[in-house]
Design goal:
EF-hand domain-containing protein; EF_hand_dom; globular; 50% helix; calcium ion binding; 117 residues; mainly alpha; EF-hand-dom_pair; Recoverin, domain 1; two-stranded antiparallel ribbon
Length: 117
């Protein structure tokens, strides 16, 4: 039955399969982060990808990153919503220095966080 005093065993995060493109991983993460299926991710939805949601410093960083990813159009201001294109473009650029295994691990963690909330 197990020792009731010992901490629960950590389950490994399911990984995206090797060979899956980074773009496809981002599409999958986006799909599960877009809770209301509006086709865009709000700041509230985006914050699901953070691990310490009750930490003010983490929330501030998440808001700053969200703002960087949200692009203004040629004749428009930022709209406060990340499109699939903005989300993918930003994460591919910010993860450019990661090797495929590290990128897959990061994307898999985001997917797990998005599915859990």
């Amino acid at each position: 039955m197990g020792n009731l005093c010992s901490p629960p065993a950590k389950r490994p995060v399911p990984q995206f399969p090797e060979g899956m493109s980074r773009e496809d991983m981002m599409k999958e993460v986006f799909k599960y982060t877009d809770d209301d299926k509006s086709g865009g991710i709000s700041l509230k939805e985006y914050k699901q990808l953070g691990q310490k949601l009750d930490d003010p410093a983490t929330n501030a960083i998440m808001a700053d990153v969200f703002d960087q990813a949200d692009k203004a159009g040629w004749f428009s201001q930022k709209d406060g919503v990340l499109t699939l294109e903005e989300f993918t473009e930003f994460n591919l650029a910010s993860g450019k220095s990661l090797d495929d295994a590290a990128f897959r691990k990061q994307a898999s963690m985001w997917l797990q966080l998005a599915k859990a909330r």
